[in-house]
Design a protein that fits this description.
Strand content: 25-35%
Distance between the termini: 44 Å
Largest sheet: 5 strands, mixed
Number of helices: 6
Length: 166
């Protein structure tokens, strides 16, 4: 069994470990996750009292056979055609949830764009740039990390593109 760092042992996630290792400023927000909640993103928005255009969900899609991460506001949905175009692809579809979990190392509803088991191409919706900070999953249900969109894009080598739909 692999040894865990002190940060991981004290409740840190691969996402928060990656942020700390990079020296990136962030704020952690924890809330009580309700397993009966129909939407992880809406639950986070309500629990944190943050505008839905500042809370972003992490989705994993298949673009021409390559898994790609899309980060879009919880208030909207992912435009698969726009995602494919943003990475020079032709066709995109949502990835199988089991494949997404196995590849990222996170469970559905807690997939973070940061600290994934395998680094995937990442596209962040361009609307993120309108905010000083945004919230994304910190790697488990009931835990969000708030950071600047520029830091998120830098840490994930993301492309910023209009991939969200209202």
């Amino acid at each position: 069994m692999a040894k865990k760092s002190k940060k991981q042992q004290s409740g840190g996630t691969p996402a928060t470990v990656a942020l700390t290792a990079a020296g990136t400023p962030y704020t952690l927000h924890a809330y009580e996750h309700d397993p009966a909640s129909p939407s992880y993103g809406e639950e986070a928005t309500e629990a944190l009292g943050v505008s839905p255009d500042r809370v972003f969900k992490t989705l994993v899609a298949d673009v021409d056979g390559e898994l790609t991460v899309a980060v879009v506001p919880v208030a909207g949905s992912l435009d698969l055609k726009a995602l494919a175009a943003a990475v020079g692809g032709k066709r995109a579809s949502m990835a199988d949830p089991v494949t997404a979990e196995r590849t990222t190392g996170y469970v559905r509803g807690g997939i973070s764009p940061l600290g994934q088991r395998k680094r995937l191409r990442t596209v962040v919706d361009a609307s993120a740039e309108a905010h000083a900070t945004i919230c994304v999953s910190a790697g488990r249900r009931g835990l969000e990390v708030e950071l600047s969109p520029a830091d998120l894009a830098s840490l994930t080598s993301a492309v910023l593109a209009p991939i969200g739909r209202s």
